[in-house]
Design a protein that fits this description.
About 55% of the residues lie in helices and about 20% in strands. The protein is of the alpha+beta class and about 375 residues long. Strands 6-8-9-11-10 form a five-stranded mixed β-sheet. Strands 2-1-4-3 form a four-stranded antiparallel β-sheet. The mean pLDDT is about 80.
Length: about 375
């Protein structure tokens, strides 16, 4: 089905290009024909001018000659005789003593059209320089205007196609996320039942506490996936405490060689947050930092307050990011790892910017020195 749709799209595009090419080619032919007719008109005018010179000598000027000379009121022209005397027609705001402008126009007219020699008694008595009429000047920009319209049309099709594709992918990821949440829910219910059985068997409570923590964790993960594609509920939340809780969970599950430090002001900071999605974002970024330091290094999480926003920065001393990739790392599928789907930072960007109307970006990075990821939320 998709293959047939793609073939139809290509056929439509090909036909459009053929039609456009035909229009442009016919416009070019029309332009050339118009220029030829314009030159013929100017040649007739030059013959009339030669006839006028002859008639002045004979004192016999024909009405036809005068009519031809009088009727040309659209083509700009400059006539230079053998003595260097200049006459011009159909050129506004030009003075006979403005030699600089006249010479500039003569050069321009020579580039547009070949000058016409006016003969009398087999001798060149005058040279006629003429430019393109207003109609030709407007006509020569028509193909350019048409091309711009075509490019605009193609751009609109491209953006529509891209938006449609993104919307389809979003629906696919949303469906997969909700299905994942549903699939996780089934064994979770069973695990909770087994916990109750183990409690009745008087198994060591310390083991059961840790198992319950992980079950709670799976519940949180299930809720996160279930919230994708739905508008999350944002509540006024103590961001300092929520960040600390998220980091505490991670600290107990990472290598001792990873040093995670949390700095925050004494004042408790609040903003409108969805707890599950925010924690998910923190975990995604911290996990990326752990990958960047290759499981051995320092990660600094700093929470601060500025004029209108609350700022969270996560700094690691890992491999760093090239400047050309500052924005690409948030694209779906982008990953520098041999394994991985490249969805963590993409989801984080969507959570922060689409769901919380915040900002997330690479503030600074230097290869093999450090990287700073910054998140901003509006104050409540």
């Amino acid at each position: 089905m998709n293959k047939k749709k793609n073939i139809s799209s290509w056929i439509l595009v090909s036909l459009s290009l053929i039609i456009i090419s035909v229009i442009l080619w016919n416009t070019f032919l029309f332009f050339q024909k118009f220029k030829t007719e314009e030159r013929s008109k100017m040649q007739i005018w030059s013959l009339a001018q030669a006839e006028l010179t002859k008639s002045l000598d004979d004192d016999n000027i024909s009405n036809l000659t005068l009519e031809v000379l009088k009727n040309n009121s659209t083509t700009p022209m400059i006539k230079v005789n053998k003595n260097g005397e200049i006459e011009f027609n159909n050129i506004a705001n030009l003075k006979i003593d403005d030699s600089t402008k006249i010479n500039k126009l003569i050069r321009k007219f020579k580039n547009e059209n070949t000058p016409i020699k006016i003969y009398y008694d087999n001798k060149v008595i005058e040279t006629l320089y003429y430019g393109n009429s207003d109609v030709i000047n407007k006509l020569k920009y028509y193909p350019l205007a048409l091309i711009l319209i075509i490019l605009l049309f193609i751009s609109l099709i491209y953006f529509y196609y891209k938006s449609s594709k993104i919307a389809t992918l979003n629906m696919l990821w949303t469906g997969m996320a909700k299905e994942t949440a549903h699939q996780i829910g089934t064994p979770l219910t069973s695990l909770m039942g087994w916990i109750e059985i183990l409690k009745s068997k008087k198994v060591d409570s310390n083991y059961l506490i840790e198992i319950e923590k992980d079950i709670d964790r799976l519940n949180i993960i299930s809720e996160r996936f279930n919230k994708i594609g739905s508008k999350p509920i944002l509540l006024k939340t103590n961001l300092t405490k929520l960040t600390r809780d998220s980091l505490d969970y991670l600290m107990t599950r990472v290598s001792d060689r990873v040093n995670i430090e949390f700095k925050f002001p004494k004042k408790q900071l609040y903003c409108q947050i969805n707890k599950q999605l925010y924690s998910w974002t923190i975990e995604n970024i911290i996990k990326n930092s752990i990958d960047a330091i290759k499981g051995d290094g320092d990660i600094l999480v700093k929470l601060s307050e500025q004029k209108n926003v609350i700022v969270l920065t996560i700094t690691d001393n890992g491999t760093g990011i090239k400047k050309s990739q500052f924005k690409k790392i948030f694209n779906p599928g982008f990953t520098s790892k041999k394994r991985g789907w490249g969805l963590g930072l993409s989801l984080s960007k969507r959570i922060i910017e689409d769901y919380h109307s915040g900002k997330i970006f690479v503030k600074y990075s230097e290869l093999n020195v450090k990287t700073i990821i910054q998140i901003e939320f509006d104050k409540v």
